[in-house]
Amino acid sequence: MEWWLIVILFFGGLLLAFLSSIPIAIAFLLVDIVGMYFVIGPNFSNQLIGSIYDSVATFTLTPVPLFVLMGEVLFNSGLALKAIGTIDKWLGKIPGRLSVLSVVSGALFASLSGSTIANTAMLGSLLTPEMQRRNYHKSMIVGPIMASGSLAMMIPPSTLTVVFGSLAGINVGNLLIAGLLPGLLLAGLYAVYTIGRCWLNPKLAPAYEVEHVEFRQLLAETVKNVLPLGLVIVLTVGAIVVGLTTPTEAASVGTLISFLVAWFLGDMNKGVIKKSIMNSMRVTAMILIIVAASTAFSQVLAFSGATQQLMQLVTNLPLSPLWILVGMLAVVFLLGMFIEEVSIMMITLPIFMPIVTTMNIDPVWFGILMLLILEISLLTPPVGLLLYTIKGVTPDEITMNDIWKAAWPYVFCGLVAVLIILKFPVITMLLIS
What we know:
globular, cell membrane, transmembrane helix, DctM, transmembrane
C-alpha cells in the first residue's frame, strides 16, 4: 500500500473516531490497534505493550500529576477567590476594570494550575455575575475570560507543556522556562487590547464608583492573600529557571507548599483533599493514556514508512525552513478550528518533529510557537474547547454566537504574539540561554 494512502486512511480513521462519542484517548488507542494489525501483522501485541510501557514509564511525565494536584488544592481550598478580591482592589478606575481583572487573574492562576478549563470555568463563574450587574457588554464579559483562561497552556507550570515536551522529545524543563516570557507577552497583548477598546468605547464597560481602600490595608491584604500564591510560583517556576531543581523536584516542592498554604490560610478539610486527589487522578490517567496512544501512533507511521516518505517530500520542497515552519503552524491553526489541542498534538508531532530535526529548526522555539498556536485554537470557532467551557458557566442569554464573536479579537492578539516570536526568537530563548 502506498504511504500516502496509509496516511489518509489513518487520519480519516482518527477524524471518525474523534467525531464519535468515544473518549478521545480511547478512540486514538483503538485506531492504533487497528493500524498496528495491518502494518505490523497479527503479532503486534508485544510491540504495542512495549510501546505503552516505554511511553508512560518515563521520568519526564512525573511532574504531571503533581502540577494538577497543586492547582486543584489551591482552587478547592478557596485561596483563588481571596486573591481575586485583592487584585480587584489594586486596579482602581482603569477602563474595563473587571475585564482586565480577568486577564490579570488568569495570568496569575495559569502559573498555579496549568489547567485551561479550570482557569476559564473558575473566572467565568466568579466574574460573570458581577460584570452583568455592571452592564458590561457580552463581548467584554466572555472574551477576556476565555483569553485569560487559555494562558494556563503557556505560562509555567503547564501540564500540557509537560505532555507536549514528552510527546515531542523536547527537554521539558527548557520548554517550561521558555514559555514564561511568551505567556506574559500574550497576557500583555490581551490586557492592552481590552483597555484600549474600553477606553475608545466606554459603553462596553461602564465605569462605576470604586470603594477607596487605604494603602496600608491593601498592602496587608496582598501579603495575606496574594503573596502566599506568589511564594508557590517563585519556588516552583523560579527553581526551574535558575537550575536548582528539575521540573519533577520543583513540582514536588510546589505541591507540598500548596498543601501547607491551603492548610494555614485556606478552607482545607478532608472533603477538599479528597476532591483534589480524585480530580487529579482522573486527569492524570487520561493524560497517560493519551501519551501511550500517541507513541503507538508514531510507531505505526514509522513502520509503514510514511514518516520517512513525508519527511523526504517536505525537505525536497523549494522552500526555506522558515516557510516550512509557517506552513506547519498554519496546519495546526486550521486543525484547531475542528479538533481539540491534545488530539492535534497526537496527530501532528509524530510527523512534524522529524521535519524539525531535519530542517535544523530549534526544537524549543518550534515548541513554543506550536504551543501558542494550540493556545489560540482553544478560542477558535467552531469547536474551541474554551468556547464551550465558558458557555457552561454563563447564563442562557449569552449565546454561542455571542461567544464566537467575542473570541475572534483575542485570536488575532494571539496571532500577533506568534508573529512577534517568529521575528524575535530571543524572547523564547532568553531565559534558557
